[in-house]
Amino acid sequence: MQSIPLLNLSVVFLPTLALLMIMRRWRLAAGSGFYANARMLVQLLLVGYVLTFVFETDDWLVIIAIVVLMIGAAAAIALRSSNSKGIGNYTVLCFAIGVPGALMLILVTQFVLQMERWFEPRFVIPIAGMIFANSMNSVALSAERCDSEVAHGVGFLEARRAALEAALIPQINSLLAVGLVALPGMMTGQILSGVDPLVAARYQIMVMWMLFGSGGLSAVAYLSLSSKKAHPA
């Protein structure tokens, strides 16, 4: 694939700039939007340099450390959506995101893909990123919805059901829309790089099941553990 010149890349920022200006005019959190975009830019540029090193490593401990760091960061971000900010809830989030996600990562990398090394960085790191980011969003949605329902006087079991339903809405919408409304990122990238569309479709099917399963099970794990905290008996 051809490299994108920085000047050309900056063109796609113009609609974002327009949106930020509208947010400011409408007295929304334009500062947060600008900060999020700036942080995204810095993080992706830095990770590009880091991955250049990581993809060449022969040390499996480096890969494990990166996966653990991903889980910890995802839990910290998801914690922002919960009313409970303590270390106990952070631990629950780490477990809910990490355990189903790690099991899915093992399933995909060790039993679906054929890798030369079990810790092949070019496979493990991007797939882990997709899994844990998706699980983070699912858990954050379920936490926010569950807290909101309980705050409005809804019983916990009903709040849990509503929270899981809300967390699965983006997942189910993605399954319904794929191939009809949009070609997902992995499939689009592979097609642009010259991969046979049928091969790209198989990879995308793997990704869709991977994200639906890990995201949904992470939300279930979080809500189940929250249920035990709310009803310790």
Order of helix and strand elements from N to C terminus = HHHHHHHHH
Biggest β-sheet strands, sense, barrel? none
Secondary structure: helix percent: over 70%
**Overall number of strands:** 0
**Rg, alpha carbons:** 20 Å
Distance between the termini: 58 Å
Task: Figure out the total of helices.
Answer: 9
Beta-strand share of residues: under 5%
The residue ranges in which pLDDT falls below 50 over 5 or more consecutive positions are none
Backbone shape: globular
pLDDT averaged residue by residue: 90
User: Given the helix and strand composition, which structural class is it?
Assistant: mainly alpha
Would you give an account of this structure?
The chain has 233 residues and is mainly α. Helix content is 79%, strand content 0%. It has helices at 6-11, 13-25, 30-54, 60-79, 87-112, 121-151, 156-177, 185-192, 197-230. The radius of gyration is 20 Å and the shape is globular. The model has no long low-confidence stretch (mean pLDDT 90).
